[in-house]
Amino acid sequence: MKRVVLAGLGGLLGTVLVGGGLALFFIVDDYFFSPNFPSDELPQVVAVVNNEAISDDMVETEIKISRLNLVEPLPPLSGVDLNRAREEAVNQLVSRHLILQVAARQNFFLDDAYVQERVDLLFGTYGDETLDQALVRAGASRADLKWWVREIFTAENFTTDVIMADAAPSERQQVYNDWLNAQRAAADVVVYLNGETSTALALVGDPAPDFTLASLDGQPESLANYRGQVVLVNFWATWCPSCISEMPDYEKVYQEYDQGNGEFVVLGINFQEGPQHVAEYATGLGLTFPVLLDRDGSVSGRQYLVTGMPASFIIDRQGLIYYRHLGPMSGETLRAKLLELGF
Hints:
The structure is a single chain. The chain contains eleven helices and 14 strands. By secondary structure, it is of the alpha+beta class. The protein has two domains: 150 residues, Porin chaperone SurA, peptide-binding domain (Triger factor/SurA peptide-binding fold, Orthogonal Bundle), CATH 1.10.4030.10; 139 residues, 3-Layer(aba) Sandwich (Glutaredoxin), CATH 3.40.30. The strands form three sheets. A seven-stranded mixed sheet has the order 9-8-12-11-10-13-14. Strands 5-4-6-7 form a four-stranded antiparallel sheet. Strand 8 and strand 9 form a beta hairpin. Helix 3 packs across helix 6 and helix 4 packs across helix 6. The longest helix is centred in the N-terminal third of the chain and has 27 residues. The protein is globular. The two termini are 36 Å apart. The N terminus is likely disordered.
């Protein structure tokens, strides 16, 4: 499989992503950009998915269109909020492109008329003049809007019409989760964000990215401290109904298998919420396993590239990712995986 080759002085893509060095060369597929290529014309690539580049322009368009308000513009993003929006946009684009690439290989495309219908349905309520004014305020164009709508609905329609086509209603979400997990495991994805390089996604068989986060009582907890144990790392948020519904199952399995011998532990990593708020939920759910706070989203978004809640990773005794699961995971699935690991 052809991988991305990038090199730079002072960091990847120099002034584009790091803000200091000058990129020496850039290769994606068979395109080569020499050291003499003008720095302001360097490809602004923030991720590569199976040799397909995701550009900074795509990230900016994702943010602009997803925040488009026809009546009253949303306040501009800056600082931490802007960084979080960019990280989320990159994660969404990576996941979406995994679906779109499979759709393209199966010749699944939407025609222009259908895309225009979706544009009119979503954004045509107040007429063309209002829409055009909103796009100008957002710094976007009609072409940007159609690109975004085409991507969103191609992924959505392919998911419902192909991936979940033969699944019973009660099994559709699980079928989709399993399919996307398989695509991620087989994908060749590299992300370059905020001057950092990640060979994301966190893949089955790879070492689990280490992290240190504060617990609800303010004490630092590191994944490395649990080497030699089987660890369920679960990313969750209080605003996520599926997260809340699966927590009692994890607590029950934790009580069943831990038995005071420290062989199995659950680490519940909350996404960007305050300690008092999270503690209230943890107490209400009766959780006794460690709950950690990913206050800036760096573990969720940068190290594990979680694109939706909940998401779970089972890490074996050697510190390798044994299983990853997108979406709610049942207690039965967790027990089955623990059985495979010798419990």
